[in-house]
Amino acid sequence: MSRAKPSISSVHLQITPWRLFIYAQAFRFSSGHGKCFSPGVKALMIWYAQRFKQVLLNRKLARQWRMYFERH
Amino acid sequence: MPDKLIAHNFAQVRDLLQARLERGQLQTVSLDIFDTLLARIDTPEQVQYAVCREVAKSLARPIEQVWQLRQQTEQALRQKALRDWLDPECRFGEWVSAWVEALVGHADLALQRFIITTELELEQLALYIKPDVLAFLHWLAQQGLRVLAISDMYLERAHLLEILRRKGLLSYFEQVHVSSEQCLGKYSGRLFASIRDELNISPSTWVHIGDNPISDRRAACEQGIQGIWLLEKAALRQRETQVLMANMAKRGSTWKGQHFFSVLEQRLRALEPASDDFYYRYGRDVLGAAFSTFMLGLQERLTRKPVDKIFFVARDGYLFQQMYQALPQKLPESYLYLSRKVITAASTADGLTHEQAKVAFYNPKQQGLRSICKIYGVPEDSLRYLAACHGFREMAQPIHDWNDKRLLDFLADANVQALIRPLGIEHRRLLEAYLEQSGFFEHKHIALVDIGWNGTVQKFLKQAFGHRADFPIINAYYFAFVPKLYHDFGAQNYCEGIIHDSRRDNACERIPSEFEEIFEQGARALEATTIAYREQAGVVEPVLKSPTAPDRMAEIACNHMVSSLQQGILAHWRHFQAVQRLTGYQSVEILPYVYGLLERAVVYPTREESRLLSQLVHTEDFGHDHILSIGRDKLSWQDLLKPRQLWHRFKVSAWRYAWLAGFPTNMTNFVLRMAYLRAVKK
């Protein structure tokens, strides 16, 4: 779990759902009240599946990956 | 047929236009409006849904029904346009008229106006000028070209003119054309043809720019106009993320908060200048979210349980008052100069009880009888002799056993009480006069707003003046309410912690209590705490702590940081209100995410946060002159050899997690968090 990056001048109000999920585990492993700000495993999977789909549809990034594989 | 041109930003568009200018092939430039000049912080569907929410609220109808009727009337009008051999477009005025008829069964001009005004207001809130647009339009204006704005949109020309005027873009355009006017769209090419004929433009000298490859490039090119597709990938990804966020928000849990703050983040990025001031950013990105959600919760409660007047309690109520005053609709409100010091001093009018004396010992730096004297405003010298008689050699000697026989005897001594009581009576007289003067007893039902934590002020007000017939019913709303000291607040004395209320027994919402000082610093007024009252020319005025007191001097040195924090919080609050209106989320829906946001800030701070927030000092308003360092203590490997001592230091530290900010990973914080949650009393 890497430390959050120092804030820069831009606005940062977003915490990734994954990070929230990890933070919530501290409650789950101690007091048992972990659902408060956990996004939920199922929703987390759906979120990342959708994001992955977006990344796949992003042809520029796909091109970069193709170039990466061709080079290595 | 013109070339298939793609530009990825306005600089590339400019280069393409420059080349045509040099060849003398450019006289007219037209631009799409939405997603080309103006971007949105949320999807158009969300904005339309927000309009339906406000209409549903005003008509007391289910929102889904209002939404369905909107969709149906829109579809009917678009079908009608198709039957008339036009493009499937509709005018907003006609649409709203049909929608209102479907909603209430007859024409209602007032409701029509309300809907149109609301739609325009919400569009204004959602739209912002994309970066580089102003510079590009300015460059275009300097070239002496005819510049047009063309949009496929259901809003009418007058509405678009209003939107462009409010955004400061109208002066750049010679004319504005919209598909809804003649039911002719860009996508069919018929709107381009109509404009060409109307303005007698030669297509070979006309360039159109827009974000839609069909409407803005292909259809234009088919008319002989050079269309340029503005393909900004970042904007495209942003729109995809907006749709995904809006869909995930339907799942509830933290997703609504995630959606809310993603919209807010976009709005802040678009409309607020970037800042290099850490404290401003911390106020905007961390404290702003917590305090704005608190204010939203406060608004909701005041709507559910109306009161006659709101009193914001010094000093931490200062920021809340500033935030409240920024609201468009508000109740009468006032600021009360109160502190635990003046309240407790007044509470000794009937003598000092053991329960009251114990309050002085909650401070980790308590100094026994001296603390009691400071808190209750009793001169130390007057009690020194009597204290010695009961075995106290030093007034400043800490009293750790609260049932110390010497203390019990001291309090039972009639001479001690005879010294304390008249002072208490005078304190109470002045406090009562100040409250009367402030209109505290003039209303039947009032709200007290403060940061929290124990409700001392509320408790003692009721205790001291609850016997008065005109004592109001008090609804006290706290940022965090942790009634460790008192449990019984008396009848008609309601209290609630909006962000954290320990009575709810939710471990996750306890996060403000893990670092109370930062919330108090963020909310406090810059002026000193109230230590007494004095009468001058028949007016009772607060006496503030001297600027030469050691703790006050430390506060003054930190005031510029606190001021920056508050500017950031207020910037957040301005945009928070706009986003709340757009999304319609209630405080309870975004609270889970806010807890996550605070968990990150308090438990997993960055090194920068740990270092710079440690420069703040904290004082308390209980009569002491102590300064509490909220900074991180240095942690050395030797500390690990004394784990028991280290654990104790962790437990009493103001911000225990800042100690670990020097570690390269958050795992240490995670482990400490688990250990602390296991150890702490539930």
Task: Quickly describe the structure.
The complex is a heterodimer of chains A (72) and B (682). Chain A is mainly α and 72 residues long.
Helix content of chain A: 55-70%
Number of domains of chain A: 1
Largest sheet of chain B: 6 strands, parallel
Q: What is the SS-derived class of chain B?
A: alpha/beta
Reading side by side through the largest sheet of chain B, how are the strands ordered?
Answer: 1-8-7-2-5-6
* Major interchain interface with per-chain residue totals: A-B, 42 and 58 residues
Describe this structure in words.
The complex is a heterodimer of chains A (about 70) and B (about 675). Helices cover about 60% and strands about 0% of the residues of chain A. By secondary structure, chain A is mostly helical. Chain A has one domain (about 15-70). Chain A is elongated and about 50 Å long. The model of chain A has no long low-confidence stretch (mean pLDDT about 75). Chain B is of the alpha/beta class. Chain B folds into three domains: about 1-240, HAD superfamily/HAD-like (Rossmann fold); about 250-350 and about 425-625, no CATH class; about 630-680, no CATH class. In chain B, the strands form five sheets. A six-stranded parallel sheet of chain B has the order 1-8-7-2-5-6, sandwiched between helices. Chain B has a five-stranded parallel sheet with strand order 10-9-11-12-13. Chain B has a two-stranded antiparallel ribbon with strand order 3-4. In chain B, α12 packs across α24 (about 585-605) and α13 crosses α23. The longest helix of chain B has about 35 residues, at about 550-585. Chain B starts with a strand and ends with a helix. Chains A and B meet through α1 and α2 of A and α11, α12, α13, α24 and α25 of B.
